[in-house]
Amino acid sequence: MMASSGLGAVPPIEFIDLGTQRRRLGARLDAAIMRVVDQGKYIMGPDVAELERQLAAYCGVKHALGVSSGTDALVLGLMAKSVRPGDAVFVPSFTFAATAEVVAWLGATPVFVDVHDDTFNIALSSLDAGLNTARKRGLRPVAVIAVDLFGQPADYDALDAFARREGLWLMADAAQSFGASYRGRKVGQIGEISATSFYPAKPLGCYGDGGAVFTNDDALAATMRSLRIHGQGSDKYDNVRIGINGRLDTIQAAILIEKLAIFPDEIVARQRVADRYAAALRDVAIVPRVEPDRTSVWAQYTIRLPGRDRNAIAARLGAAGVPTATHYPKPVHQQTAYRGFPVAGNGLPVSERLATEVLSLPMHPYLDEVSQDRVVAELRAALA
Ligand SMILES: *Cc1c(COP(=O)(O)O)cnc(C)c1O
């Protein structure tokens, strides 16, 4: 078991390798950063507007706003739509806590719904049950936040039809899926508002916190622009609404411009890695399913190991120099801070089961075949 960890002959595999990307970007990145440092326009400098133009063009959406994080992107969307106490916002429980956190910040109530076990994304049948739960509690159902978990877009046409029928609006938590597409539409142009994250480990990451919010609606874009800078009106010292400090740093925008240039190529590399994993593991584990009408950017490559001791397998891989991660060990509705919020119907059995089955493997565009074969071999040995 310890064969591959002796005396540094074989270096441990990186779960996400940002170093290789940094070396690839090389002097271009140094120059971009130093240009901002020397120019001195650290807040809302010209790179922010340039990045926003490039992001909007990339997604095919009218408005893209650079913001301080994915979490702030989500809350700006909710604030722009005036979400308030008494409102119910439906969120999947099998997600990162930020999806629900922003709802609670505004005094509204996150209502947790279940997901599909094959795509990990929000389940319509559970949304129906959630609507009943919310109404029984005397809450006003206003919105759905769909999460594109692990990089694959949710089923937006079905969600949109549901939302229209029930008078709800739809926001995409695309923190993990920037670059993916759904029925030929790029993430960013889907949903009334979409939010993404440029946290370093996301498919498109910066060197700190960052995010973006997207919409085709001019009025919503103008409101979010204002909210992002303390609710500013015609100038800096004119405050027309209560906002936040939600700006993206100029230096992060400059870094993202360089990274966006190689991103399409990285998405191809991610898909190649995912295809190799699927071919090598489908007979020993449940490999992730991507629906034929969409693409994933593989923020995570997450397999399921039902009936196996997932933690023991992870420990064995770790000892062999193969890092893994659990996304997510506990659904949000079971977290200490969120236990008091309502759940759809009689509980969320799929989210609870997935939390015991999932295991994420090393995934990044620079995972070479030799390293990937080592991940596969160690995993197969652990499962044998
Ligand atoms: C990362 C993430 C967020 C939060 O993004 P930050 O930039 O870290 O604030 C929100 N939702 C999901 C699903 C995420 O994965």
Q: Count of helices?
A: 11
In N-to-C order, the SSE pattern is: HHEHEHEHEHEEEEEHHEHHEH
Note the quaternary state here: single chain
- Which small-molecule species are bound to the chains here? pyridoxal-5'-phosphate
How far is the N terminus from the C terminus?
Answer: 13 Å
Radius of gyration: 21 Å
Q: Major beta sheet, specifics?
A: 7 strands, mixed
Shape: globular
Largest sheet, order of strands side by side?
Answer: 1-9-8-5-4-2-3
The structural class is alpha/beta
**DSSP strand content:** 5-15%
Count of beta strands: 11
- Nearest-integer average pLDDT: 96
Helix content: 40-55%
The residue ranges in which pLDDT falls below 50 over 5 or more consecutive positions are 1-7
Report on this structure.
With 384 residues, the protein is an alpha/beta fold. The protein has helices at 18-39, 46-59, 70-80, 98-105, 124-136, 156-166, 218-228, 250-281, 310-319, 349-357, 369-383; strands spanning 63-67, 87-92, 109-113, 140-147, 169-173, 181-182, 185-186, 193-197, 211-215, 301-304, 358-361. The protein has a seven-stranded mixed β-sheet, with helices on both faces. A two-stranded antiparallel ribbon has the order 6-7. The structure holds pyridoxal-5'-phosphate. Pyridoxal-5'-phosphate binds at residues 69-71, 95-96, 98-99, 147, 173, 175-176, 197, 199, 209, 211. The site of pyridoxal-5'-phosphate has 15 residues, from helix 3 and helix 4.
Give the gist of this structure.
With 384 residues, the protein is α/β, with parallel strands linked by helices.
